[in-house]
Amino acid sequence: MTPQQLRHLREARGLTREELARELKCSAGAIVQWEGNSRAIPTWVVDKMLESATITLPLKELHELIDIALQREADFGSILADAIRAYIANQRGEDKVSQFPDPKPAQNPAPQAQKPGQLAAEDPVVYQAKRRSK
Fold first, then answer.
1. Quick one: 71 and 89 in the same domain?
2. Are 42 and 11 within one domain?
3. Could you tell me if residue 112 is inside a domain?
4. Within the chain, how many helices (H) and strands (E) appear?
5. In this predicted model, what pLDDT tens digit does every residue of 78-131 receive, in sequence order?
6. Measuring CA to CA, how many Å separate 36 from each of 3, 86, 105?
7. In whole angstroms, what is the distance from residue 8 CA to residue 41 CA?
């Protein structure tokens, strides 16, 4: 993690250096040194900052990513990582080709009946992400 990334994560959470220092159980001076690049950011700080990072994604878009994973017979985490890599490549002006092949054409696809106002989470299809063993 770079000093700029540390500062961005702190500011994105709306924390002052003093508030982050209390949360991390360190001094505000240590935060100043890490963000100022005068001292290396310890691994435990990186871990703590990434543990508390959140991603907000509209439910409709999450549902769409899950559908893509099912169509391509890939696990959801891989599809999400691929989408993030493609976004980063796009921001850099690079061409990013998906590591996953195009979906296979569906054979006799069943119509998806969805009630008006029904949220994707209420969809009768149950999705279960594959867990990686540690």
1. yes
2. yes
3. no
4. 6, 0
5. 888 888 888 888 888 877 655 555 555 545 444 454 455 444 444 444 444 444
6. 7, 31, 53
7. 14
Q: Which residue reads 């990686």 in tokens?
A: 132
Contacts of 65 (CB under 8 A, 6+ apart): 76, 79, 80, 83
Query: Residue 35 is which amino acid?
Result: E
Token pair for residue 90?
């796009």
pLDDT, one tens digit per residue, over 37-91 is 999 999 999 999 988 777 788 888 888 888 888 888 888 888 888 888 888 888 8
Report the C-alpha gap between 24 and 49 in whole angstroms: 9
Prediction pTM value: 0.53
Q: Which of 73, 54, 60 is nearest to 123 (CA)?
A: 60
Spatial separation of the C-alpha atoms in residues 56 and 41, rounded to whole Å: 26
Q: Measuring CA to CA, which residue among 48, 131, 130, 64 is closest to residue 103?
A: 64
For residue 12, give its domain range: 3-51
Considering the domain architecture, whether residues 9 and 29 belong to the same structural domain is answered as yes
Instruction: Note whether 30 and 42 are within 8 A (CB).
Output: no
